[in-house]
Amino acid sequence: MTVEEVLEAMKHLAERDPALREKLIATQHSKEAVADFCRICTECGFPLYEMDLISAGEEYYAAMRRSTNGGGENSPLLRGSDDYYEMFIKDLEAM
User: Fold this and answer.
1) What is the distance between the alpha carbons of residues 2 and 18, in angstroms, rounded to a whole number?
2) Is residue 5 scored above 60 in pLDDT?
3) Is the pLDDT of residue 93 over 50?
C-alpha cells in the first residue's frame, strides 16, 4: 500500500471508531508524535514507517512546486503543507 492509501484506510477506521480517532489525535502531544502515529497505524494492520510518511509529503510538495511552472511561493497551489501527518490530524479534528 502507498502512504496515501494507508492514510485513507486509517481515516475510514477513525470515522467509525471515535476512540481510535482520539488516540490518533492525541499523538500530536507526544514527544515522538510521528513515531507514535505510525505505530498505531501498524497496530491497526496498516504498516507505516516514519520516513515513508515524511518522504511522501515532501515528494508531493516538490511535485506540486514543479507543476506550477515557476509560479513561485505566491502560487495558490503552494499554500498547502508538505506534512501528511499534520494534514491528517487536522482532518480528524474536523470530523
Assistant:
1) 24
2) yes
3) yes
Cell of 54: 515524511
Amino acid at 35: A
Q: Is 21 helix (H, G, I), strand (E, B) or coil?
A: helix
Query: Are the beta carbons of 84 and 57 closer than 8 angstroms?
Result: yes
> What's the alpha-carbon Rg for the chain, to the nearest Å?
14
Q: Which residue has the cell 492525541?
A: 26
Q: At residue 67, what is the residue type?
A: S
Best CA proximity match to 3, nearest among 70, 55, 73: 55
CB burial of residue 57 (10 Å; 0-12, 13-18, 19+): buried
